[in-house]
Amino acid sequence: MNILILGSGGREHALAWAVKQNPKTDRLIVAPGNAGIAQMAECADIDILDGAAVVAFCAENAVDFVIIGPEAPLAAGVADATRAAGLLTFGPSAAAARLEASKAFTKEICDACHAPTAAYARFDTAAPARDYVQAKGAPIVVKADGLAAGKGVIVAMTMDEALAAIDDMFGGEFGSAGAEVVIEEFMQGEEASFFILTDGMNALPIGTAQDHKRVGEGDTGPNTGGMGAYSPAPVLTPALQKQAMDQIVLPTIREMARRGTPYQGVLYAGLMIEHGQCRLVEYNARFGDPETQVLMMRLGAQALDLLLACAEERLDQTRVTWAEDHALTVVMAARGYPGAYTKGSTIRGLEALPETASQMVFHAGTTARDGQITATGGRVLNVTARGATLAEAQARAYATVNAIDWPEGFCRRDIGWRAL
Ligand code: AMP
Ligand code: GLY
């Protein structure tokens, strides 16, 4: 079959890598893609936020299956447009993607299905929000309701930070995403990510992961989009996964179906674990980045079969085949990230690296120029490896990092430390 993947990051490179290994795949197109993806698939320059443009492209190119990577096209209704055109689609409708696109909506769903999560209140003006924070005290978490490219959450350790976040959000720092603000109880504990495919009725867990959000070793310094990840996450024990399914995920799926907006796609549950219990931090309506890189490395070619079963509403007849393996990815970023960084530096040594079922460099922010790979983003490469143990996967990934010649880049040297 002909498959179109929408997106341009390391997540989409990893999805493309897994899908391409499946013999069902004839033609693989990624839009817009990046320099690494271009080495293994066709890249197409289409506006992935424009549902009509995506549908027209699929008609012209006899696309059979569309896989939507990032949240923006989901929130823009691209899955609605492709499904309306009769295209088999992986990714939730805009109404279902509100589980990511509106934090207040997610809280409303948790209330309706009694899913454990942080206590909260929602506000559409600053004065009562300030009063609420002053009554509750710090630490406290201030969230812009809408999509803010991962920047709309302020975990305020002091009252001043919380008040400043409220003023910034209502002052328009996040545009319309901050028109409503959710203020939450600060949850202690350890965070982990749980990935569940659902076809609207049935749910199939496909793996756990943990990422490292801080830029510095030992999980210090400013927050980033993620500096590395590994799978499985040992903290999410089978008992905790069962609790998360029974108390959070399945009730959410039933509530979304009951409302006439069934959720179809991958549900990414961010969980906080404390005292042997998990609570929901947030949902994402897509695969995690860089968590997908480790999930795909572990699932391999069967990933396509799972995504197809999800889109064709037959997850009840589908199983995941697990190897008792581990995968780890190290993000290489441009020096300066997550602050200001320079673009356009050259990365050398990539062509000499082996690309195998247990070792792969996924590209996140690269462009090919005059036969060379240049860095064009903050997070640039995802050096990913698999092993029988996490330590083996880690050693393999760092051996590859050491073989990459990119003086303008850096990475954390301790990815995986929590689990090791
Ligand atoms: P989100 O955009 O909702 O993923 O939030 C970003 C990060 O903020 C999460 O991954 C957590 O590390 C942190 N966070 C969000 N909500 C809370 C909370 N209620 N308590 C503690 N940390 C939180
Ligand atoms: N790694 C966090 C995310 O994808 O949102």
Describe the 3D structure.
- With 420 residues, the protein is an alpha+beta fold.
- It folds into 4 domains: 92 residues, 3-Layer(aba) Sandwich (Rossmann fold); 55 residues, ATP-grasp fold, A domain (Dna Ligase, domain 1, 2-Layer Sandwich); 128 residues, D-amino Acid Aminotransferase, Chain A, domain 1, CATH 3.30.470; 85 residues, Phosphoribosylglycinamide synthetase, C-terminal domain (Glycinamide Ribonucleotide Synthetase, Chain A, domain 4, Alpha-Beta Complex).
- Helix content is 31%, strand content 29%.
- Strands 10, 11, 14, 15, 16, 17, 19, 22 and 23 form a 9-stranded antiparallel β-sheet that branches. It has a 5-stranded parallel β-sheet with strand order 3-2-1-4-5, sandwiched between helices.
- Helix 1 packs parallel to helix 11 and helix 7 packs across helix 10.
- The longest helix has 21 residues.
- The mean pLDDT is 95.
- The structure holds adenosine monophosphate and glycine (GLY).
- Glycine (GLY) binds next to loops.
